[in-house]
Amino acid sequence: MKKKRVQEKIKARSVPFSQTRSRHASETAEDYVEAVLDLIDEKGECRVLDLSRFFNVSHVTVSRIVKRLNDADLLYTQPYKPIELTDKGYKLAKKSKKRHEIVLAFLIKLGVDKANAEIDSEGIEHHVSPSTLDAMKKFLK
Amino acid sequence: MKKKRVQEKIKARSVPFSQTRSRHASETAEDYVEAVLDLIDEKGECRVLDLSRFFNVSHVTVSRIVKRLNDADLLYTQPYKPIELTDKGYKLAKKSKKRHEIVLAFLIKLGVDKANAEIDSEGIEHHVSPSTLDAMKKFLK
DNA sequence: CATAATCCGTAGCCATTGCTACATTTATAC
DNA sequence: GTATAAATGTAGCAATGGCTACGGATTATG
Ligand SMILES: [Mn+2]
Ligand SMILES: [Mn+2]
Ligand SMILES: [Mn+2]
Ligand SMILES: [Mn+2]
Questions:
Q1: Considering the entire predicted model, what is its pTM?
Q2: Among A66, A90, B9, B23, which is 20 to 30 Å from A26 by CA?
C-alpha cells in the first residue's frame, strides 16, 4: 500500500483519543459542580475545605479550580464565603449527577460489588456517550 | 451531628476520586504501549510520527512522552530510530489491549453502535477494575 | 553525490493540577 | 474584647501534556 494511505489510516484512528482528551478537559468541572450540589444538599453549605476533603486534595488546589469555574460562570464565589452554583452550574450538576447515578446503578446490576462500582463509575461517567447511556438505561429496565 | 463526624463522612467519599486520579496517571503509558504494539504489528515499525498521527498530537508531545516511558523501562528508544517495547512494556501492552478489547466488545453487545463504542471504550478501559472486567466477561458469555 | 523531502530533537511557551509554606481573615472560646 | 483556632488566600515550585518555531539528521530522488 502507498505510504500516504497508511498514514491516513493511522490518522483515522485518532478520533477516540481526541474525544477522550476533550472529555477529560470537562471532567473537573462536572465533578466539582456535582460535589457542590451534594455538599449544599447534605451540609447546608459548601466551603473550600469541604471540597478539599471531598476530593482529598489541598485547599489550594480547590481554591484555584473554584476561581476558574467562577470565571466560567458555573459557580459563584466570594472570598471567605460559601460556594454556590449558578444556573448554568446547577444544570450541569443535575445532568452529571443523573448520568453518574445511571452508570453506578448499571455497574451494580451488572454484578459489580458496590465498592468497586463506586470507584469505577467515578471515572467511567465522563466517558459515556448518549448512545452508551441509552444502552445502560435499557439494560436497567 | 458533630462537626468532626461530618468532616470524616465527607472525607470517606474521596476514595473514588483518588483512585480515578491514579488511573489517569497510568493512562498515557497504557495507551502508548498499546499503540506501539499495534503499529509494529501493522506497519512493521513504530516511529515518533506514527504515534503523532495515531494520537493526533504534535511530534514534540510524543517525543517527550516516549522519553519518559523509556526512562520508566516500558519502551526502548534511540534518536532517529524506531521505537520498540521492553518486556515490561510488552506485558503492559498485551494486558491493556486485552482489557480494551473486552470493554469494546462489551459495549457493542450492550447495543452501542460501533463508532460510539470505539470512542467510549478508549476512555472507559482505564477505569475498569478487575471486578468490573469480570462482570463484563460474564455478560459476553 | 547533491539536493530536496522527511523525520526528529530542542528551546521555550501555556494551561492544568498537584504540593508546601506563609499571610490574612473570620469564627470560636474564654 | 482579646486570644486562639479555623478557614481561606497568596506565593512559588513540580510534573504532565498541549503547542509553534527552528535546526539538525536521515532518507529519498534525480
Ligand atoms: Mn460524578
Ligand atoms: Mn467523576
Ligand atoms: Mn485509552
Ligand atoms: Mn478518564
A1: 0.96
A2: B9
